[in-house]
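Sample A.
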Amino acid sequence: MAGNRAVRFRLIGTKSNRDAIGASVRIFVEGSAQTRMVKSGSSYLSQSELPVTFGVGRRDRIERVVIDWPSGRSEEHKNLVTGKTYECLEGKGITPLEGF
């Protein structure tokens, strides 16, 4: 369906492992929540894309994202624009990247 949007998060661990494998990312939009976990391959000779992607329909913002890092640290960022990829550096903040 045309007009649907998404938001992506690329996590980089500093205290946790660099690829942030095991991190949990939750987004909150208009009273609903979605969760994704950063994981590597789940079966023999498989692999998974490390950035996590959330579909958000036609919404142009998400209210907040909560990242639970494998190290035990938890971070929250609010009022993010959809249609972007964000780079999240553990303990250092979040930065929108050019393109999707």
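Sample B, a different protein:
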Amino acid sequence: MLWTPQKGILRCEHNSPAVASQLMPGTQITSGASASTKGAWSTLIAATAFDSYFMFISLAGLGAPNNAWRGAVDIGIGAATEEVIIADLLCGGAAGYGSTSGLNGPPKTWAFPLYIPSGSRLAGRYASDRTSFAAFLGIWLYGGHGSPPFRVGTKVTTYGTGTVPGGTAITPGASGAEGAWTQIISATSEDHFAVFPSFQVNDGSATAKTYGVDIGIGAATEEELASQYWYGTNANEAQGGPFPFMPTWADMPSGSRLCMRAQCNGALDAAYEASLHAVS
């Protein structure tokens, strides 16, 4: 029998417009009428065209000058009674390509090795300090043929969510110094093999800064799993990142303590929040 080798992931599906007919990529979603309330679900993809193994997400257009707008995004699967498969991605101050008022820049982004079956409906919703406000949620799925050359999960667990739309308070080190490790979760609820961070600046008078965010595991003598996920702000409180936008693959057994630390390239502005999203 002639065996033809598979060529791996060949297809991409997304909810961006075919042409640049709008300022920012994705589907318009609207935050709830109060800061702690998520808006209605909005369909991102009505029925996926193929099995996918990797998901890339962006949130754009939440920022506004002289305001600290925090945000938290959910991704759901299914119709009518959507099941949350990714919860509370922190999207505060998300910039947007083509934005006006000095808010132009890269959006907030996340990426996960996550299996989504063909024919699935995917939806999104979010809460924000900026209430009843429309932003743009983009999603890209990769798969279609063969098998992925990496491990793939079916669930993302979020650790470190505070009162929506907030995360865990974290204090970066100033002027390039590393901040202290901040515990995000004392003991994970299950085994995980990949993780991706969220980070938002909660400040209404931020200046142009860059932030490097690290992920650690263990207690007292934390082992660094990932270093320098880079985020940025500008003088109009627009936030973007991180770069690189790839998850960190690492063995994180159930019961693991996960932590984060951060550094800033200048003086600190005000408050900062973080969380972790772990795949299983």
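Observation for Sample B: The CA atoms of residues 186 and 202 lie 24 Å apart.
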